[in-house]
Amino acid sequence: YGIDIFPKAEMDSDRVRTFVADQADRTQLAAFIDRFGGGYDIIVDDGGHSMEMQQVSLGYLFRYVKPGGYYVIEDVHTSLPERWSGFGVEPGGGNSTLAMLNGFIASGRVQSPYLSGAEEKHLARSIEYCNLFSRNNRFRSLTCILKKRTAAEKR
Predict the structure, then answer these.
(1) Cα(60)–Cα(90) distance, rounded to whole angstroms?
(2) Which of 31, 54, 140, 142 has the greatest count of CB atoms below 10 A from its CB?
(3) pLDDT of 133-144, one tens digit each?
(4) CA distance 43 to 30
(5) How far apart are CA 155 and CA 153, in angstroms?
(6) Could you say which of 49, 54, 89, 146 is catalytic?
(7) Catalytic annotation present for 49
(8) Cα(90)–Cα(98) distance, rounded to whole angstroms?
């Protein structure tokens, strides 16, 4: 399944289904879930890369990852405005996806100006681990892999 803000019907096949949605719009994400359901082994966010898009998608879609499944956020390096401007990082960077992830790594809490309190609590309870990976390529790209706890591991 693929979600994109632009129609990608040419990608549809027996094995691929596409859906038009803005990843920062919970109503549109809900329409995707209504149509295709949940229970995904892996979700990869390689979308619009803005702070709001990355965090709203994570906050909304993580509950539809199967226990023991994975959620991947590509291009977390857009949280570094000195290298990548135009992705909505506010002065000081407190709203960045990287700051949210580092806060979780440091404290076990999720805090984001884009998430509801219920989404923050669900993520904090449901994430087994959060790994950040840095590639020494021309982009100095950062990727995050989050693993969802199994039902038996819930706190």
Answers:
(1) 22
(2) 54
(3) 998 887 779 999
(4) 15
(5) 6
(6) 49
(7) yes
(8) 12
3-state secondary structure the chain: CEEECCCCHHHCCCCCCEEECCCCCHHHHHHHHHHHCCCEEEEEECCCCCHHHHHHHHHHHHHHEEEEEEEEECCHHHHCCCCCCCCCCCCCCCCCHHHHHHHHHHHCCCCCCCCCHHHHHHHHHHEEEEEEEECCCCCCCEEEEEEECCHHHCC
Q: What pLDDT is recorded for position 124?
A: 97
Are 61 and 43 within 8 A, CB to CB? Answer: yes
Residue with tokens 């149509």: 35
d(CA 121, CA 63): 11
pTM: 0.93
